[in-house]
Amino acid sequence: MLIARWLLASAFVVALCSCGAAATPSSEHPPTASVPAYVVEPFSHEQQLVEQGAHLVVSDGCAACHLSAQGKAIAPSFASFAGHRVELADGHTAVVEEHFLRGGLLDPRRIVIRGYAAAPMLAAVARLQLAKHPQQVAALAAFIEQVGPEPE
Predict the structure, then answer these.
(1) CA–CA dist 140, 90 (Å, integer)
(2) Domains, the chain, ranges and CATH?
(3) What is the spatial distance between Cα 3 and Cα 128, in angstroms, rounded to a whole number?
(4) What dihedral do alpha carbons 98, 99, 101, 104 form, nearest 10°?
(5) DSSP string over 62-106
(6) 120: burial class by Cβ within 10 Å (0-12, 13-18, 19+)?
(7) pLDDT 10s per residue in the chain (152 long)?
């Protein structure tokens, strides 16, 4: 609860500091070189996908299994999943990267990771109808890759 309050207070301070930042610069306040480019430039397409994916992870319920830090995980954690080599139920190994993630999101029967039951993922993909929403698949894959380390 304390962390949530601190995050909310920090977001409020950032919002107050950026009041008027979107307005066109006037001659009274010329832009300064001390403001990082990422503050004033629009999000790239990839950044927009990551943002959309983060929203989907929370709103679709993925976070309940993939971001949980309690007890034995029922699904691989996104933080330690992307960019790593995983062993599949069929004995093969694969690096978790965009192609792997998209394939698993579209057809989780094809890609089952050893040590995890496929049923929860199958149910989630069926409920979300991801095969009908390629933009959501792209956004989820972008977010998961962003959370994890660079590929091996």
Answers:
(1) 25
(2) 45-67+74-152 (1.10.760.10)
(3) 31
(4) 170
(5) HHHHHS--SSS-SS--HHHHTTSEEEBTTS-EEE-SHHHHHHHHH
(6) middle
(7) 334 343 344 444 344 444 444 444 444 445 556 877 766 777 888 899 999 999 999 999 998 888 876 656 788 888 778 888 999 999 999 999 999 999 999 999 988 999 999 999 999 999 999 999 999 999 999 999 888 765 54
Give the torsion sign (CA, 145, 148, 149, 152). negative
What sign for the dihedral angle of Cα 127, 129, 131, 135? negative
pTM recorded for the entire structure: 0.67
